[in-house]
Amino acid sequence: MEQLILYLVRALVDHPDQVGLRASEVDGARLFELKVSPEDVGKVIGRDGRTVGALRTLLGAAGQKQGQKVRLEIQDDRRLPQAASSAPPEGQ
């Protein structure tokens, strides 16, 4: 399963050498945490989430065949603009 994810994602991104994957077991499901270059996050998510949705569908089908529930999460380390922060300004 890990090799399938890495193969597909590396084919999508501009920086395949920065693709990382961590697998763990959470609530009876196999959780895959995908990390890509901040520049590639949008490519992996796709317009309206279509690309990541397709990846999740493929992984779900592969997992079902193996009798596993599978989850895929993408780590998004891009920084939010300061104005988008929900924290109140200091001193208030």
UniProtKB/TrEMBL annotation:
<keyword id="KW-0694">RNA-binding</keyword>
<dbReference type="GO" id="GO:0009252">
    <property type="term" value="P:peptidoglycan biosynthetic process"/>
</dbReference>
<dbReference type="InterPro" id="IPR015946">
    <property type="entry name" value="KH_dom-like_a/b"/>
</dbReference>
<dbReference type="InterPro" id="IPR009019">
    <property type="entry name" value="KH_sf_prok-type"/>
</dbReference>
<keyword id="KW-0963">Cytoplasm</keyword>
<keyword id="KW-0143">Chaperone</keyword>
<comment type="subunit">
    <text>Forms a complex with KhpB.</text>
</comment>
<dbReference type="GO" id="GO:0008360">
    <property type="term" value="P:regulation of cell shape"/>
</dbReference>
<protein>
    <recommendedName>
        <fullName>RNA-binding protein KhpA</fullName>
    </recommendedName>
</protein>
<comment type="similarity">
    <text>Belongs to the KhpA RNA-binding protein family.</text>
</comment>
<keyword id="KW-0133">Cell shape</keyword>
<comment type="function">
    <text>A probable RNA chaperone. Forms a complex with KhpB which binds to cellular RNA and controls its expression. Plays a role in peptidoglycan (PG) homeostasis and cell length regulation.</text>
</comment>
<dbReference type="GO" id="GO:0071555">
    <property type="term" value="P:cell wall organization"/>
</dbReference>
<dbReference type="GO" id="GO:0005737">
    <property type="term" value="C:cytoplasm"/>
</dbReference>
<dbReference type="InterPro" id="IPR020627">
    <property type="entry name" value="KhpA"/>
</dbReference>
<keyword id="KW-0961">Cell wall biogenesis/degradation</keyword>
<dbReference type="Pfam" id="PF13083">
    <property type="entry name" value="KH_KhpA-B"/>
</dbReference>
<dbReference type="GO" id="GO:0003723">
    <property type="term" value="F:RNA binding"/>
</dbReference>
